[in-house]
Amino acid sequence: MKPQILVLLLLFMAACQAPKTSLTPERTSMELLAQKENRPRRAASLRLVEGGRKDLTTSRFGQAAQKFSQAIEVDAGNPYAYFYLGVARYRTGRFDESAEIFLRSSNLFVDANDWRAEALTRRGESFEKIGRIEDARLAYERARKIDFGNERAHKGWYRLSDQM
Amino acid sequence: MGKKKKKRKTKLRLLFLLGLGVLVVGLLYAVDAGRQVTGRMSGKIFSLPSRVYYSAPVLYPGMPFPPKVLKSYLDRLGYQSIEKGAVDTGQYRRWDDRIMIGLRAFHDPAGKNPARAVLVRYQDEEIRDIHAHSQGKENELFTLHLEPELLGEFFKSKREERTLVRLDDVPATLKEAVLSMEDHRFYSHWGISLHGTLRALWANLRGGGVSQGGSTLTQQLMKNFFLTHERTFSRKIREAIMTLVAEALYSKDQIFEAYLNEIYLGQRGSASVHGFGEASKFYFSKTLQETTLAEQALLVGLISSPGRYSPYRNIERAAERRNLVLRKLWAEKKISEAAYELARTEVVSPRGRVVGNETPAYFVDYVRRELNERFSDSELTEDGLEIFTNLDSNFQRAAESAIKKVIPSLEKRISKKREKIDSDEPFQVALVSMVPQTGAIKAWVGGRSYEKSQFNRVVQALRQPGSVVKPFVYAAALSTRKKNLPPVATASTILDDRATTFSHAGRDWSPKNYNEVYAGEVTVRSALERSLNVATINLASQVGLPRLTALFSDSGFQGVQALPSAVLGSIEVTPLMLARAYTMFANGGLRTEPLGISVVIDPKGHRLEQRTPKVKRVLSEDVAFLMTYLMQGVVDRGTAVSARKWGLIGDLAGKTGTTDDERDSWFVGFSPTLLTAVWVGFDDGSTVGLTGAGGALQIWIQYMKKVGQFLPKETFHPPKSIQFYKIDRKRGCVRAKGEKWLEAFLPGTEPAKCR
Fold first, then answer.
1. Residues B622-677: pLDDT tens digits?
2. Among B225, B339, B412, B655, which is 20 to 30 Å from B668 by CA?
3. For chain B, what is the radius of gyration of the CA atoms?
4. What is the DSSP string of B345-362?
5. Residues of chain B found within 8 Å of residue A85, distances taken between Cβ atoms
6. B43 φψ region: left (φ > 0), alpha (ψ -120 to 50), beta (else)
7. Among candidates B512, B510, B532, B511, which has minimal Cα distance to B523?
8. Are the beta carbons of A100 and B435 separated by less than 8 Å?
């Protein structure tokens, strides 16, 4: 086998071995999603989420949570609103609640496997914080199955599998 | 000679002692007055009532918010409707398919919102688009926060409304006008104007009494702060001493600012309007900075007699008085001739007066009770807090009007059964409506009349719920048990519904179905849809009392005893407890805490309290959906089918409840985004003679018909794991042909095929 082909093959295998997620919820603009959205209610709700995301970056968690709630009231099926509400809950240490809200968000992400897996990963992280290790491991496992590219889910799963 | 000298000396000594005495008394009097003045003028000068607000709507393109609803919302806020021309701040104009609004500046929990003109265009009953207009430019808006509507106030003993303004923020022309009309030597005298006093004294002497006042601004302020309006010389002396003390201790600007905030300028119902900050809102729907010269002159003209010169009472008289103020300003060269002419010809147009706004007093009581856990009464009545709630004025009005509409027909039906009823009091009603996902309380009716009874039934009436607790029994039966054991039942499990005697703890119990009609063998679905008691008890006995009481407790019902009668609703709950418990069905198994209050802000804009949704997992999402799906059957075919007959459309679920001897009539119903609990009964527990369907359900139907226009067209989405099978409705088995029904199951729990 030619060395160049071998190198390419090795590189390809390495890429397959090291999963990487392109999803970065902290940097995803809801405004951009709103602009692409053709359902007016969802678009308005996403814009309210965007307002709350800005509050999250300045650690105004209460204000953020209020905007996410408002976004849910406008569109109760908006998975992003639940996702970021989960983030707000997680960052204020309300892990039992964030675990449940991330699950709700995950179930609403019907057509976005990367987000669905991310929400489950965050659910796993919430469970870990309150010592529900088996529930956390199951959440990471589900996330891995849905989106193999989710690095955090892999890390979490390996971390907990080692412990068990 | 010596005697005379001695007498004279004694006289002098007496005079000296008398003088000394007067001086000491005067000094003591001044010290006391000083203490009073400093006590009032230092620190918090005014008691500001706290204001409670409804939640304000957020408009967005595509939103169902009919133009007539927006128009009536603006009317309630006191916006003035105009027929033509450009809209000014505080006005709106509707033509064709659009409404142009001159939005006032306001702040809400989201922050500060500037005054601006916005154009809302409609397509039928939905908002098509929203544009902000500024300096000839148009800017598309994707969300628009409207000003929140005032819901109520927490007053101290005096009902005074006041919006504080700082002297620097008061328009210069208004300050000039006040000084010109009331006390043009204010910045040069030392509190008492000799010239003014002599003029008043002369007039009073000629009139033979005290008819004219020569008071300076400081004297007026002292009189308003500490003294009565009685015109006596002794009151005048005390006023003079206090005035001198105030002038010695405080700067002119401090006194002027206090005066501008204190002066009485009108009456809003039973509350008095004090200060120019509040008066500009009351008369013109504007902040003081937004008022025109003519409007400022009108406000200043009110000082001498707010009732007489009120534009609400007599526009011509108000205009004459305003023009007198303007003329004085012009004569003293405080304004130019052009400004004078322009202001003089301005049409007096006070805003539409907000009257007849009924306060949802039961809800305000609830808010106060909630706030009292953290704030004292004095903080709530004196610190000018702004309390933003989740109550929605459109939903609240819909609830009140639904109840008013249904009451006559209920009264008729109750009077027909009068021989069974032993209460002299009118029957009562309670309704609470909330968003199941967030807990936001949208409507709250605690009784028929707050004036007659302050008993807040939504939170205080502990009543037996009857069959409205049955869904909790079914939820326990449909849930997977510990150690991955399959559920006790599915929606198609066959239950026995025949008259039976049950034994518990050595005692026999023979529950009956409504009207003593028994179905024989029924599916779980049919038993719930028809609210069959015996079938439900049979199901409960399979679940077991410990599991049931655990679920009741997780659902938020307190003090539930492990008795078989509990499954038929022999426990005690309030409407709010029931609404909270039902959120777990409508919110994917999460129980949501009710949220009346959203944010509490102090006058400096600091957030003192912030409440956000609180949830707790009680059921799995799958089981919550199964239950919702079962309860949709109650509305589509079961005991609540009259909702469909009345024309309610869309995905709806719920459960009726009637207690023994028809003492309580209940209904808890929900759409994907709104959950409502309704109760009808007598406070003393007498028979009301109504079933859940005949009483509470009728109110819910009317309420939902009214709020339907605001609710998004949502459906109950099944989670991915739920599987649907075609079922024989009577036998509960999977059927491929003939009459069938699509039933929902947890994976692996579907029944066998029909033979």
1. 999 999 999 999 999 999 999 999 999 999 999 999 998 889 999 999 999 999 99
2. B412
3. 35
4. TSPP-PPPP-------HH
5. 613
6. left
7. B532
8. no
User: Mind telling me how many Å the CA of A147 is from chain B's nearest CA?
Assistant: 17
Instruction: For chain B, count helices (H), then strands (E).
Output: 23, 31
Instruction: Provide the pairing of β-strand B58-59 with B674-681.
Output: unpaired
A49 interfacial to chain B (CB closer than 8 Å): no
How far is residue B67's CA from residue B368's CA, in Å, rounded to a whole number? 34
Whether B130 and B144 have beta carbons less than 8 Å apart is answered as yes
Using DSSP's 3-state secondary structure scheme, residue B590 falls into strand
CB contact (8 A) between residue A41 and residue B612:
no
The per-residue pLDDT for range A58-107, each reduced to its tens digit, is 999 999 999 999 999 999 999 999 999 999 999 999 999 999 999 999 99
Phi/psi at B104 (5° precision): -80, 160
DSSP string for residues in B394-406: HHHHHHHHHHHHH
Contact between A157 and A137 (Cβ < 8 Å): yes
- Round to whole Å and give the CA distance between B364 and B53: 10
B147 is an active site residue: no
Residue A66 sits at the chain B interface (C-beta within 8 Å): yes
| Residue B724 parent element (H or E) | strand B723-727
Tell me the two tokens of residue B567. 């499954």
**Other CB atoms within 10 A of residue B301 CB:** 25
Assigned token pair, B667: 């209904």
Is the dihedral angle over the CA atoms B554, B555, B559, B564 positive or is it negative?
negative
Neighbours of B683 (CB within 10 A): 17
Residue B438: closest CA among B601, B589, B618, B587: B587
- From CA B633, how far away is CA B653, in angstroms rounded? 7
* Helix (H) or strand (E) segment spanning residue A16: helix A3-17
**What ipTM did this prediction achieve?**
0.85
**Burial of residue B408, with CB atoms counted within 10 A of its CB: 0-12 exposed, 13-18 middle, 19 or more buried:** exposed
Token pair recorded at residue A108: 């609403």
With a cut of 70, which residues of chain B have pLDDT below it? Answer: 1-2, 43, 200, 203-204, 207-214, 228-232, 352-358, 418-423, 483, 738-740
Inter-residue contact B174 to B296 (CB < 8 Å): yes
Contact B364, B155 (CB under 8 A): no
> Which tokens hold the place of B359?
């306060």
| B435 in reach of chain A (CB within 8 A) | yes
Q: Which long-range contacts (CB under 8 A, 24 or more apart) does B513-522 make?
A: B514/B658, B514/B691, B520/B496, B521/B494, B521/B495, B521/B496, B521/B497, B522/B494, B522/B495, B522/B497
* A5 three-state secondary structure: helix
Q: What is the token pair recorded at B754? A: 């029909």
Entry pTM: 0.85
What is the average pLDDT score of chain B?
89
Rounded to 10 deg, the angle between the B275-284 and B293-301 helix axes is 110
- Residue B135 CB partners (closer than 8 Å, separation 6+): none
Return the HEC string of B234-279.
HHHHHHHHHHHHHHHHCCHHHHHHHHHHHCEEEEECCEEEEHHHHH
Report whether B107 contacts B605 (CB < 8 A): yes
In this structure, the number of other CB atoms found within 10 A of the CB of residue B576 comes to 25
- Residue indicated by tokens 């412990």: A163
Other beta carbons less than 10 A from residue A87's beta carbon: 25
- 3-class secondary structure, B117: strand
- C-alpha closest to that of B680 among B418, B445, B439: B445
User: Does residue A117 contact residue A143 with C-beta atoms inside 8 Å?
Assistant: yes
What residues does B58 pair with on adjacent strands? B145
Q: Do the chains contact at B714 and A40, CB–CB below 8 Å?
A: no
